[in-house]
Amino acid sequence: MTPHLTARNAFIAALVLALFLVPVYAVWIGNNFVLSLFTRIVILAIAATSLNLIMGYGGMVSFGHAAYLGTGGYAVGILAFEGVTSGFVQWPLALVVSGAIAFVIGILSLRTRGVYFIMITLAFAQMIYYVAVSLNRYGADDGLTIYRRSQFGGLINLSNKTVFYYLCLVILMGSIYLVWRIVNSRFGMVIQGSRSNDRRMRAIGFPTFRYRLACFVIAGMICGLAGVLLANHTDFISPAMMHWTRSGDLIVMVVLGGMGSLFGPTIGAVALLVLEEALPYVISVAGRVVTGHDVATAKEYWQLILGPMLLLVVLFARGGIDGLLASLRRG
Amino acid sequence: MKKTMVAAGAILALTAGSALAQSKSVKIGFVSTFSGPTAVIGNNMRDSFELALDHIGRKMGGLPVEVIYEDDGQKPEQGKQKTEKLIESDKVDFVVGYIWSNVLLASLKPVLDSKTFLISSNAGPSQIAGELCSEYFFSTSWQNDQTPQAMGTYMNTKGVKSVFLIGPNYAAGKDMLAGVASTFKGQVVGQELTKWPDQLDFSAELSKARAAKPDAIFVFYPGAAGVQFLTQYAQAGLKGQIPLYTAFTIDELSLPRQKDLALGVPGAQHWVNDLPNDANKKYVADFKAKYKSSPSFYGAQTYDAVGLINSAVVAAKGDLTKKDVMRNEMRKANYKSVRGPYKYGNNHIPIQNFYLQDVVKNASGELVLKTVATIVKDSQDNFAAKCPMKW
Amino acid sequence: MLLFIEQCLNGLQLGLLLFLLAAGLTLIFGIMDFVNLAHGSLYMIGAYFAATFAAMTDSFVLGALLALIATFLVGVVVEMVALRRLYGRDHLDHVLATFGLILFSNEMVRLVWGPEGRNLALPSWLNTAIEIFPGVYYPTYRFAIIVVALAVAGFLYVIVMRTRIGMLIRAGASNREMIGALGINIKLLYTLVFGIGAALAGLAGLMQTPILTASIGMGENILILAFVVIIIGGIGSIRGAFIASIFVGLIDTVGRAFMPDLLKLFLSQAAASTAGPALSSMLIYLLMAVILVLRPEGLFPAAGNR
Fold first, then answer.
1. Which of A138, B74, C46, C111 could bridge to C205 as Cys pair (CB 3.0-4.6 Å)?
2. B189 and B295 belong to one structural domain
3. Mean pLDDT score of chain A
4. Is B305 in the same domain as B318?
5. CB within 8 Å of chain C, chain A residues 124-163
6. Are C6 and B191 in contact (CB < 8 Å)?
7. C-alpha–C-alpha distance, residues B247 and C171, integer Å
8. pLDDT-based confidence at C92, cuts 50/70/90?
């Protein structure tokens, strides 16, 4: 991991710097929405980073990762609804519950492999989703508005958008650092070894099941924290937070950015969500240039462009965007 | 270093903000569904809004009007995000639209926190009429329970003794079924809530309804789901066996696809295309001329939103910072509504008539909706008493 | 009791429909080792084609046949242009690529057919209910779906078990490398299998259209159910897919119908009628999880596949 000034490292450094400067830019142009958008991006990047830990390094493709996002969010939302707004209670509880759920899911799922693992994690996530749907007291399908963000007794004010953004960003950087430490530890070596040849790792004498389970729980807890942040950011929770399409989005972010790469998930989250915002705008501008007048409806078709873009990334950029960047040096 | 930059930026932002306040236009954010199967509704609303703006020369109190349309994708989360964008990025003066109750409930906080006026031109969940009522919220539609309540009243007059209720499991669905049950004097023999908006196969529910042997079935399925329900109701052979009563299930948007299946199925509505007032005649005729299709109640309510906002801007003489003046004017509902004159309750929900509509064939053989009778006059919702606001 | 029989028929109908989707999915998965999320898009395209062709030809049956052929062709073209390059790649590459295809086809359908969806009217001889037992009425058309799907299942069985192509398909599902070594034109076989899968998905879609109408995104929810089916049944196993789809269809429908009543014994009316649908939707996933915990490769794993 000795840093060289390659195109890839320069890009990542620029990206991190840009992320740190977002609030300044938002103030500069007097538009809080940019900040709001990037807060969301950073939070989902945390979730994607946690997914990358099990998926990219451990070979455990979870198609139910949004369940922890929902668990974290519901922990905050339900407690706030019941009058407990202290972050000192909400946050640790959210982490413990996400960890516990990951533990149960992991113990039952980790015996399966490949696509069967993908689907069993989906099954558990769907069960949790439907539990949320049946919570009548907490809004069921319609979700619940959170009227007060987590309180930290004057220590930090989450209602201040800039403060909240930096908190999320620091947590993202912390998560990436944590993943880096894990991956390069003995523990991480076992996880990665088990991905390529589980039988051999067991033969050497490593109880790989326990290692993988521990890894799965850590990822669940990080994602639960992302859920806590997301609930505080949107002031709203609903079962949609953990719909299977959200789990799919997280997988797309990781694969798009680059699996098994430390900053890949962040790159993927930024790329996907910025495209979501920018494509409609680009299309409407292009439409105005081409046709000479406003084509208000054209921008609704932005997915017509995004879809083939994803297909092209798969076809021509193995290892996602990060893989593409890494190949620049070689090429 | 960073502090000074932030401070410098803040000063810039302040000056930019005051510059914005002086910029002479009325900015309106419009949130509705423009993608997915229910985009038809959103498009009908947008067309009506544009038509209404044309009718006032696209100026309010001398200021040009600028509208920004945003798609909520029928998802509460997305609706909330778009609403926040309108408030924070576009800094609109009014937010209008909202088809779905759950989207409206999710989007409420950012709008009201910023003291921006929100005009719901469709959704009317019970919470916003009751404990969540706000001096920055107005409705040009109704409270969810009101329309089905009128239907319940009508079913009483038809001598219906027992009913089976079917509706989608979300905020409005629950309100609608509760609304019918509150005025219906007979027995509710069964109630089914279906997963929304995913579940479109109602075979299990229809089988249960048949087995319960009720005098009537009441349903609420807005948009395309209304087409699917009516089709399956006919396929199950229930048409002619158990009569159907509806709210918001048959309208000008679904009728072209429901066709003869909708013939003779009654519905309750506060607006029908043939209401005999001048504003309505102009709206319906011009809409048909401009878009070559029929306006719906969704469009009518949205057309009215322009009238309501215009009255407020005119009363404030174009000074959009005079929120109190604008609010007081809107409370008078002092504009030509296409439903005819109405009043506002203390919770800013209309007090209005509800009509019985039926599907008939007109002279040229087309299926049209027709006003048959007035079911209730000056109906006010049941939640007004729970709203602490007084004026 | 009569109600129970009726609900079982509803469940059977849903199950058989799922089978049509799952059969194609499990073949493509088993033989090409390809995860096709866009299978639901083919289901949707079949539905739109049927609605359009039936309106053009003024005949339900003719429209359905044309739609079947058209969906087969779309499948073949998509396979040849894009997906064939992805065989042998990581499953996650398949997921990302076919996810892109879903977005594309949804928007394409919206561009071509508009957002409001399409109807497919039934001929009057299908648009009634028949009395299958004294007092039990059942929609004729749903009954027709059951018959058609059973016929297709039988047809598939004959093809897979009794013909040369079927032998290759079975060989492919259990040992991919082997059929290559036999000197079979693998590319052609793959394209053909993909096209058949597409046609089956299209058939499921077009048969649903008179009931559900054709709408954008109709494929995504049922796709997940189809995946559940092939996982429970064991990837690559048509027999497994058949049994699992009927299982899933029955549990889903019967659960939806009777769960709320069952819950009313313990909960209030209001709580039971909201928790009921949620709990019964959960049943399928519960079933899948339990089966995978007990049998990590599904009920009927194709021999040698992973």
1. C46
2. no
3. 91
4. yes
5. 124, 126-127, 130-131, 133-134, 136, 140
6. no
7. 57
8. confident
Within 10 A of C8 (CB to CB), how many other CB atoms are there? 16
How far apart CA B287 and CA B273 sit, in angstroms, is 11
B13 within domain boundaries: no
Report the number of distinct structural domains present in chain A: 1
- Report whether pLDDT(B3) > 90: no
Cβ B254 vs Cβ B72: under 8 Å? no
Chains that touch C (3 or more CB pairs under 8 A): A, B
Interacting residues of C253 by C-beta distance below 8 A, sequence separation 6+: B203, B204, C7, C8, C10, C11, C14
* Statement to judge: residues B171 and B131 lie in one domain: no
Of the ranges A285-289, B86-90, B200-204, which one carries the lowest mean pLDDT score? A285-289
Examine residue B374 and state whether it is found in any structural domain, yes or no. Answer: no
- Does the interface ipTM go beyond 0.85? yes
Suggest the residue from B203, B208, B230, B298 to mutate for an interface test with chain C (most C CBs closer than 10 A).
B203
Residue A279 covered by a domain: yes
- Among B269, B290, B325, which residue terminates a domain? B269
| Residue B74 sits in the same domain as residue B124 | yes
Q: Write down which residue in B269, B284, B315 finishes a domain.
A: B269
Of A34, A36, A238, the CB nearest to B77: A238
Domains assigned to chain C: 2-294 (1.10.3470)
Best residue of B102, B128, B198 to probe chain A, by most A CBs closer than 10 Å: B102
Q: Say what percent of chain B tops pLDDT 70.
A: 94
What is the average per-residue pLDDT within A14-28?
95
Contact A310, A253 (CB under 8 A): no
In the three-class reduction of DSSP (H, G, I as helix; E, B as strand; rest coil), residue B19 is classed as: helix
Q: Are the beta carbons of A134 and C297 separated by less than 8 Å?
A: no
Is the pLDDT at C304 greater than 70, yes or no? no
Q: Is residue B248 part of a domain?
A: yes
Chain B residues touching residue C277 (CB < 8 angstroms): 169, 193-195, 199
Report DSSP state, residue A151: B
How close A212 comes to chain B (CA, Å)? 34
The boundaries of the domain holding residue A218 are 11-330
The CATH number of the domain holding residue B159 is 3.40.50.2300
CB B347 within 8 A of CB B243: no
Q: Which residue of A has its CA nearest to B19?
A: A30
Residue A151 falls in which region: left (phi positive, over 0), alpha (psi -120 to 50) or beta:
beta
| pLDDT tens-digit readout, A33-52 | 899 999 999 999 999 999 99
CB contact under 8 A, B109 and A147: yes
B307 within domain boundaries: yes
Q: Residue A105's domain is classified under what CATH number?
A: 1.10.3470
Average pLDDT over residues A237-255: 92
Distance CA B144, CA B26 (A): 30
Query: Could you list the residue range(s) of the whole structural domain that residue B303 is in?
Result: 20-142+276-352
Q: Which residues of C touch B234 (CB under 8 A)?
A: 127
pLDDT in the model for residue B10: 44
Q: Is B57 exposed, middle or buried (0-12, 13-18, 19+ CB in 10 A)?
A: exposed
Give the rounded distance of the alpha carbon of C43 from its chain centre. Answer: 8
Structural domain contains residue A219: yes
Considering the domain boundaries, does residue A5 fall inside one?
no
Q: What is the mean pLDDT of residues C64-87?
A: 95
Number of domains in chain B: 2
User: Distances in Å between the alpha carbon of C221 and those of A134, C38, C57, C166, C228?
Assistant: 19, 12, 30, 30, 11
Start-to-end CA distance of chain B, whole Å, equals 51
Give the confidence band of B8 by pLDDT, cuts at 50, 70, 90: very low
Across residues C118-124, what is the average pLDDT?
Answer: 88
A240 and C CB contact within 8 Å:
no
Q: Within a domain: residue A94?
A: yes
